[in-house]
Amino acid sequence: MTRSPPNRSTRGPDSVHVPTDATSDLERETFREQTGSETDPASVRRSNVAAATAVAETLRTTLGPNGRHKMLVGRNGRVVVTNDGANVLKSLEIADPVARAVVDVAEAQAAAVGDGTTTAVLLTGALLDAAASLLEDGLHPTTVVAGYGTAARDARERLAEYETAVDRGDDETLRAVARTAATNDWDDASIDRFADLAVSAARAVDFETESIARKSYAGAPLEASELIDGLVIDLDASSTTIERDRDGRTRTADRSVTDARIALVSHEIGVQEADAVTTPTITTPDELETLRESEREERSRVVDRLRDRSVDVLVCQQSVDERIREALEREGIVVAERTRQDEFDALAAATGARAAYSIADLDRQATGRAETVERRTIGSNPVLVIAGCPSNEHASLLLRGGTPQVADETRRIIDDCLAVTASVARDGGVVPGGGATPMALAQDLSQRARRFDEREQLAVDAFATALESIPRTLARNAGRDPIDVVTELRAEHASGRSAAGVDTNGGVADMVETGVLEPRAVLDRTLATAFEATAAILRIDAVLAESAQSVADSGPSEDGHDRGHEHADSGARASTDGYPWAIGH
Hints:
Blueprint: H1 25-35, H2 41-60, E1 70-73, E2 79-82, H3 85-90, H4 97-113, H5 117-136, H6 141-158, E3 164-165, H7 171-182, H8 188-204, E4 212-218, E5 226-228, E6 230-234, H9 235-238, E7 255-265, H10 285-308, E8 313-316, H11 322-330, E9 334-336, H12 341-351, E10 368-378, E11 381-387, E12 395-401, H13 404-427, E13 429-432, H14 436-448, H15 454-477, H16 482-494, E14 500-502, E15 508-510, E16 517-519, H17 520-538, H18 548-554
Parallel strand pairs: 4-12, 7-8, 8-9
Antiparallel strand pairs: 1-2, 3-13, 5-12, 6-11, 7-10, 10-11, 13-16, 14-15
Helix pairs in contact: 2-4, 2-5, 4-5, 4-17, 5-15, 5-17, 6-14, 6-15, 6-17, 7-8, 7-13, 8-13, 10-11, 14-15, 14-16, 15-16
């Protein structure tokens, strides 16, 4: 989002009068023209609400099983098709500071619980939209924030009434939660496959999902995806020595080693080159042959040392001399070079190997073990699969998709599935999905609002109305009349059927019976994050442009960041990753 760039005057900050609540409209206009600042509280709040709701509207059609996707086209030609709220917002060029605050809602939600980003942003937008009406009716922002705070606390406390405890060994419920996260435009078989992969992978690492590597490759359907009890190293990314034929296929044959002994070397492996001082002068053919023989002997010593230590797989963090690599391959030793630091460290942890600086430092006790090491080609990508490691702290998911875009989306979906699965296993509770629980909380708040004084009661009622925007949006995205669906939901909940929500067809159904379940922790975090962001935005009553001298004086912080956040004309700017759009208002 962009606002009009400040029209800063060259006058210093001491030469203008800062307006107060008693300032006349003429004085405010003069101040605005001189400094590029806006101090009229009503104008500021209207502008802030417009910025926040514009972000929410961008995501509204992506919510739920019938949500639509967004095609993100970068300046560099990169295309991403996704309905993940965090990914969409991360890819947009947003300069408006209030809009950035709403983007931060999605990022905070994703960092905390890994799911519910779109719901959090939509709820924030709905709360601000409702607050705008209250402010127009004469309520003070402090009263609105107080009422919203009361409603948020009450709703979070009452979540326990709709929660069902789940044992981490209950795979059926865990799969139901994962299916709910994966449900969109995939068929039932694919959704089940996502759920099975997520639960199996999470259980393999005792639900420490950060230990699961996720790699996606095009060229095969989702059904070809698999869980590896170990690590996968992408040799295309790790090595520059993969030879290909004219069709792009790798020339190095796929092969497998069982009961493999693995050596890790951090320094490059090759023939030591002479420096500028010791460069030999070759004057005769015999001297040249002597030099070549010395190099052959040095290469042979490398091969002999690895063979003597029964090494089956050599992983080098830097380069390996081409002739040494060819000799090792002839000996049946699999070689991977230029391995990324994170993969190198993970290999050491998983296999029990200790990294040696050079081949000369390598001893038999430093090698690690794995049941199988397989070099294979997935699509057009050569990979090294290390399975059956002594440490069971690592697992890898090989995800497949027919096209690169679909393959990328499978990874995004499995990320969501793993996040919600781990959340339930960690916190042990689920609530009905499909907007059922927000609807139940809205009904509770509407009934309890009468306990408060009239003005705060209006804010609590507004919070309840904002919660109803979730099932309303689900119904609209399914092609149903949201008024009819919400009216039916109110009747169901008034009759005590608190699990009634919006199903995949846009109708009203019991979410527990249909297996639509969500982690309680996700909704709890959604309520907290949306309220905090809304309160922060409502408390803003002026937008003041820093003077150039103020920005210069602030200087860079200790971590190298500009404390003034003065980027171009419009403040902090989001990373766009090459995506060209900006939302304006």
